[in-house]
Amino acid sequence: DLQICQHRAPTCCTRKMEESYQAAVRRERTQSIQALNFELKYMIVGHITAFQEAFESLLRFAENRTSSLFETAYRPVAKEAAEPVKELFTDISLYLLGAETTVESAALRFFDSLFPLVYSRLINPGITDLSEDYTECLRLTRQDINPFGRYSKNLVAELSKSLWASRMFSQALSLGIEVINTTEHAALSKECGRALVKMQYCPHCQGLTLIRPCVGYCLNVMRGCLASVSELDAQWREYISVLEYLANEMAASHELEVALTGIRNSVNEAILHAQLNGPQLSATVDKVCGQPKRQEGNLSSASVVPAKEVTEAQRFVVAHATLNSKRREFISYMKRSRTFYASIAERLCDGDLVMRDSSTCWNGEDVV
User: Fold this and answer.
1) Cα-flanking dihedrals φ and ψ of residue 213, to 5°?
2) Nearest 5°: phi and psi at 127?
3) Which pTM value belongs to this model?
4) Long-range contacts from 183-188, C-beta under 8 angstroms, 24+ separation
5) Coiled-coil segments, which residues (predicted)?
6) What are the backbone angles phi and psi of residue 367, rounded to the nearest 5°?
7) How many angstroms separate the CA atoms of 70 and 308, rounded?
8) DSSP secondary-structure letter at 355?
């Protein structure tokens, strides 16, 4: 009553044993593909971790740099500016991790929050009435009078270009893991299961437990079983090309590291621009939002102080070089895996599964 291992000679197999063999080949095939995938998946997961760690470190560095700008150059607003700065970098982090937000909305929200502080603490330090209505009027007015000049738009442009490539790179790495996980659990067809049993276990029914499949026979069976997986070849090659393109974009002049650490300078230039145009801004704001209450006495606006550079540049340069080096190594490895899905049958038939350097092997029907 055998369904797969039918043979004219006497056999020691039963129908139940055939069923056990079918379960065994399915389990073994999944384990074999997992073993092949392990190194590739390990490399991608490792780079995701390294990328996220380096990115978080970079974000903290850039946030500290920006906060120190207010503490050293614009002390009157330092305390109240802490929250908008924190929100800006949180929004950037969420954007890079794939959240449905934009760099432009994050930057505009930051400058909307910053303008009331700059206007009431630096441009007109005598203002005492900073009610919710007046603050909201200042926020809305900022969008019309553009107190920060071109610097706010420049910041958005620089960040958008560099963060876009990093966001896409991060999402592409996650997609790679998803593809690999899916191929590991690709269902084997009934015909494939029977072909694998015939190739690996039917010799056992004749007592030939040491004989192994012929190489050509193994390749034919595996190619048939993995036809759907090997169809990924063209898309996988394209995927590697996209990773390479994104890595080059990140390493180009608009790279993530430079853009993030440049936020401090952009914010500084924006505030300086607002201070230098204080009288015109005040005249416009008074017309739109009305005259606020002021303290008596002669309070001059805060003097323009050039921001000092923080002395963490050396540490940043090292971290920056490490991230670039890791990225190059990773892309180099991924380029070597271009033929991963095209050669999966050959790799599964390599090693202990088939008989090599021997005069005899199993061809599916007999020993040849």
Assistant:
1) -65, 150
2) -70, 130
3) 0.75
4) 183/33, 183/37, 183/229, 183/232, 183/341, 184/30, 184/33, 184/34, 184/37, 185/30, 186/33, 186/228, 186/229, 188/25, 188/26, 188/29, 188/225
5) none
6) -85, 130
7) 10
8) -
Amino acid occupying residue 116: P
Q: Which distant-in-sequence residues (6+ apart) come within 8 Å of 181 by Cβ? A: 41
In the structure encoding, which two tokens stand for residue 18, read together?
Answer: 């055939």
Q: Amino acid identity, residue 122?
A: L
User: Is 125 buried (19+), middle (13-18) or exposed (0-12) by CB count in 10 A?
Assistant: middle
pLDDT in tens, 266-313: 999 999 999 999 999 999 988 888 877 665 444 444 444 444 444 455
Which tokens belong to 191? Answer: 């015909």
213: β partners:
362
Give me the DSSP letters along 310-347. Answer: PTTHHHHHHHHHHHHHHHHHHHHHHHHTTTTTTTHHHH
Burial of 23 by CB count in 10 Å (0-12 exposed, 13-18 middle, 19+ buried)?
exposed
Residue type, 73: A
Cβ-Cβ contacts under 8 Å for 247 (sequence gap 6 or more):
169, 327, 328, 330, 331
What would you report as the CA-atom Rg of the chain, rounded to the nearest whole angstrom? 33
